[in-house]
Amino acid sequence: MSLDKDTVKNIAYLARIRVDEAQLEPLAGELSSILDWIEQLQELDTDGVEPMASVAAMDLPQRKDVVTDGNCQTAVLKNAPDGEDGFYTVPKVVE
Amino acid sequence: MTKLTDLTIAAARDALAAKEFSATELTEAYIQAMEAGRDLNAYITETPDVALERARESDDRRARGGHIGSMDGMPIAMKDLFCTEGVLTTAGSHILDGFTPPYESTVSANLRSAGAVMLGKANLDEFAMGSANITSYYGPVKNPWSAKVGKDLVPGGSSGGSAAAVSGRLAMAATGTDTGGSIRQPASFCGIVGLKPTYGRCSRWGIVAFASSLDQAGPMTQTVRDAAIMLGAMAGHDPKDSTSAPVETPDFEAAITGNVKGLTIGIPKEYRMDGMDPEIQAIWDQGVEWLKAAGCNIKDVSLPTTKYALPTYYIVAPAEASANLARYDGVRYGLRVPGDSLDDMYMNTRGEGFGHEVQRRILIGTYALSSGYYDAYYIKAQKVRTLISNDFKAAFEDVDAILTPTAPSAAFGIGENQDDPVAMYLNDVFTVPTSLAGLPGISVPAGLNKDGLPLGLQLIGRGFDEGTILNVASVIEDAAGFQCKPGKEA
Questions:
Q1: With CB atoms 3.0 to 4.6 Å apart as the test, which of B14, B280, B401, B427 could cross-link to B131 if both were Cys?
Q2: What pLDDT, on the 0 to 100 scale, is given for residue B419?
Q3: pTM for this structure?
Q4: How many CB contacts within 8 angstroms connect chain A with chain B?
């Protein structure tokens, strides 16, 4: 599986990671070599095999639908790189 | 008298009970060792004040006859992947610059309740992604055994700072986390014991997430008995982690009887790889002989899907990582690199904040989960994971534990194996299958190679049967008579 520069550029955008134009080509090479190596999985016949999402042999537990936490706005916002009046701030998104 | 920093948890427990020294004296000895050993770069953040405060609390408890926990007064290093209230938590990444959690992870809180004293936060590969501790934003960790060969060796990874701290006696024990081998491989490289418990044994709550279906916390210690004591303090059901198993925590230490007569130990033929290092093969054969001599039955077993475990892991783990690491957006915590728009800000922050290996894995994961490739990669890998898990289920019909090498080599030099990502991934060839199946695995030091560097053997157990592998590992430990003497003070 060989990835070209444009595909890598698109994946990087999907992942919201800025990659320098000059890095796209070498990165495409690295990712392609990893995917080539992963390609061997196709040798295996997995027809009818259930996909395994979790090894925990149990049903996910349920609990009462009640508030268990909260009222800690200051603690929640304490690590924000930029905050104002009890809110997170981001660059302007509405014109 | 033995140096305080040479004591095991078990020995220090007795000595503290006999009031031979105080927890404060013990902690002070470790703080000095930590400062003297800074060239190893094992710690990202030292917390001597926290340590001394907890040591004094421990001494107070003892003085007034209060409840004494199983780790009371024991100075440990905390892998910097565990969120610690009021103490910088970095995950070895630039993107978590300045992050000081307002809460404590369940495992570190459990250890604190058991009386443990935190010396500091141990270095690690960025977001626990790596096998050599060379991807940390805070620089590589040096293996204490480097002196043996006259060049700087890696400690393994990702729990490299934890392993180096225990091996170099900068901590009595340390927490690690293991997603594909990150406790066991560095334990092998540094000549210590590392135990990855069954998935679900220890709560993942408050541990910076890498791959949620694989991540598991565990102890890194000088001895097998210490690993049993420390696991007991870390484990336990936690409603805050929905994958935490609602099971009782057994007395792991009581499982170490030294009697393994009649147990059947499996030797998986697929782990005899082409071109395997003869010294690794030799130590593995030696392990078999020791267990035979102790009365175990040895049985060849087959785990036919073994060769597909690594490529499976390198789909599953990056896929989960790409989702987990989406939270680092420059808005809620850590680094923010400004941009003209919200998207620009995200991209600048994540471009600058994540290191190369982390970016590579997020991109692989994003690709594997993207429309049109999801079935071919992600679902395919999940199906192969089922086959790998079934292999182990079938093998454990016939055997009580499985013996393998921990890693395909001894510690290598800093800077080696760095050009080819796949070559680096091969470090985890013997540990990844266990992780995919969620089973417990322990690495125990078994001997030295011709350069005088430690080699570990791995025991794999049935789910929630850490007791058996601890017991078998203790027999190997006794037979090997291994001394963790990295050479600096020897």
A1: B427
A2: 77
A3: 0.97
A4: 157
Q: How far apart are the first and last CA of chain A?
A: 42
Tell whether B33 lies on the interface with A, counting CB pairs under 8 A. Answer: no
Could you read off the pLDDT of A29-48 as tens digits, one per residue? 999 999 999 999 999 999 99
Question: Which pLDDT value is given to residue B274?
Answer: 83
Round to whole Å and give the CA distance between B131 and B427: 7
* Facing residue for B422 by CB, picked from A33, A57, A75: A33
Which residues are bridge partners to B177 per DSSP? Answer: B217
The whole-angstrom separation of Cα B99 and Cα B85 is 10
Nearest-neighbour CA in chain A from B46: distance (Å): 21
Residue located via tokens 């079934």: B390
Q: Is B203 a catalytic residue?
A: no
Percent of chain A predicted with pLDDT > 70: 98
Report the relative pairing of strands B75-79 and B117-122 from DSSP bridges.
parallel
Does the domain made of B4-257 have the CATH classification 3.90.1150.10? no
Torsion of Cα atoms, B294 then B297 then B302 then B305, to 10° = -40
The answer to whether the CB of B159 falls within 8 A of the CB of B79 is yes
Of residues B243, B351, B380, nearest to A56 (C-beta): B243
CA–CA gap between residue B101 and residue B103 (Å, rounded)? 5
Q: Does B340 touch chain A (CB under 8 A)?
A: yes
The DSSP line for B265-301 is EEEEGGGS-TT--HHHHHHHHHHHHHHHHTT-EEEEE
CA-wise closest residue to B84 among B57, B59, B112: B112
Please write the tens of the pLDDT for every residue from B307-334: 999 999 999 999 999 999 999 999 999 9
Q: Which of A54-58, B18-22, B93-97, B220-224 has the lowest mean pLDDT?
A: A54-58
- Ranges assigned E (strand) in B47-181: 75-79, 117-122, 173-178
Sequence-ordered list of residues with C-beta below 8 angstroms from that of B419, at least 6 positions apart, any chain: none
Judged on CB neighbours under 10 Å (0-12, 13-18, 19+), A60 is exposed
* Distance, C-alpha A91 to centroid of its chain: 22
Preceding peptide of B435 cis, ω within 30°: no
Contact between chains at A44 and B348 (C-beta distance less than 8 A): no
- φ, ψ at B80 (rounded to 5°): -80, 35
What pLDDT score does A69 carry?
87
- Looking at residue B275, its pLDDT comes to 86
Q: Which of B87-91, B270-274, B305-309, B317-321 has the lowest mean pLDDT?
A: B270-274
